[in-house]
Amino acid sequence: MQKYDAIVVGAGNGGLSSACRLAKAGKKVLLIEQHNLPGGVASSFRRGRFEFETALHELAAIGKPGSRGEVYELINVDYGIPINWVPVPDLFRSIHINDEGKIIRDFTMPHGRQAFADKMELYAPGNREAMANFYKLFDESKAALTYISSANGSPSPKVLRKKYPNFLKVGSYAPMDVLTALKFTDAAKKIMGTYWSYMAVDLYRLSSIFYLMMVGDLIDGGAYITEHTSHQLTTGLLEAFRRFGGESWFNVRAEEILFRDDRACGVRTTQGTVYADHIIWNGNPNMAFANMVPKEVIPERELKLANARKFSARMFVVYVGLNKTAEELGIKDYNIFISPGLDTADEYKRVGKMEKIRSTAALCYNIANPNIGPLGTCQMSFTMAYSKDVWGDVELRDYVNLKNEKAREILELYERATGASIIPYIEEIAVATPWTFCRYTSVPEGGVYGYEAAEWDNCMARMMSIDRDYKIKGLKFTGAAGPRGDGYSEALLTGSLIGKMVLGEMAKEGK
User: Fold this and answer.
1) Quick one: which of 53, 206, 279, 459 has the most CB atoms within 10 Å?
2) What is the pLDDT of residue 152?
3) So where are the chain's domains?
4) CATH, domain range 2-60+228-309+456-508
5) pLDDT reported for residue 503
6) Enclosing H/E stretch for 316
7) Can you tell me the mean pLDDT for 242-246?
């Protein structure tokens, strides 16, 4: 019988981070992954002479030398992975364009607190005090989350009330409520709301803590990408895990989580059955409850909670390799958000329908990393997130034509908004729909963001109830569906947090 201290199912960012945390502590850990490579969507793929980044747009919480963020501290320092982080020049450019092709707004925002506030004052005068108070709130919220993480899921309400009262106060409100309370002008709110599509929930329902941490970290420390695509990050995590003494099985699929006396005790896989007192599932709880866990061991509360939650963003991405350089094509921006510039609630409703594409996050990786592809070329990605399962209604016979039609719409939108001609210079193109992500990652509806961090299911509620949300003995969940919300940074930090919680339970059990 093969027995381990812990088994981690799924080598995505969250699973890899949990596995590293446990293995570094000297535990005997097995990592199981159904594919032949680690990472899930945090990977890369090749088409012709191009290697495309699958999903990473930019990472927050890396920070600058002398003021490093918690993701840098986790990856480079704690796990000892020598990632060379490449800074993104500006935070973003945003273009608001109407249906007639008229540019309504076009603004570019830099990173750095003072620089961002100065540019805000240029585009939206009268917001310096609001920006200063935003930074204060971000600092308090960041300190509060650091404390909660250090408490391994059992923070003291007394400490939170005494040291972090504003964090507790804003946790139950949406970002638009917070921005209004901080007295941002309407023009400034439109600028501050640019990143909403990265979080895939409108600013009237999104978790304010999730919003504060992402936007605040990006303003404060800037945005970064890995030098050699996110596959460098996930292979680095795998190498660290093995260095810590961990064992990994690839091309092995988990088929059932085994239980003894209502406690998880092992995993039946295509390679045989393995045993451990602690199982970490890097994936959506709905999939585990539907296919992996016996119904009789699932507490009613956990099942109701999973069924009540809303799946988040279903991604549609177009990857293109161009046979000209960015300079030759007149491309100067790394990251451009293109949209009609309407209220985020209207935007959220619009991307819940299968209609003509009117928004995208367009990236040119060469702007940040000139050496990312072959000499004389550049590579780009164009992403939009659907808020509902609109691709689930597509007939198989219509699928190929529809995805190609949508790809053309998104590329033509970019050309109209920027004036740059790119379609004639496409050498390689690949299109990923929610079907693609569903097939590759086994997430429902292709919702790679896990659950929406919104309304009653916000990040504050998840973090404060984390000790009550894992009531199946010996089984915990990590990744995008975890307590800190979606995204690369949050999945990595969630993985570490879940690993610490398991270590705490092992210590109580005398292991």
Assistant:
1) 279
2) 66
3) 2-60+228-309+456-508
4) 3.50.50.60
5) 96
6) strand 314-322
7) 98
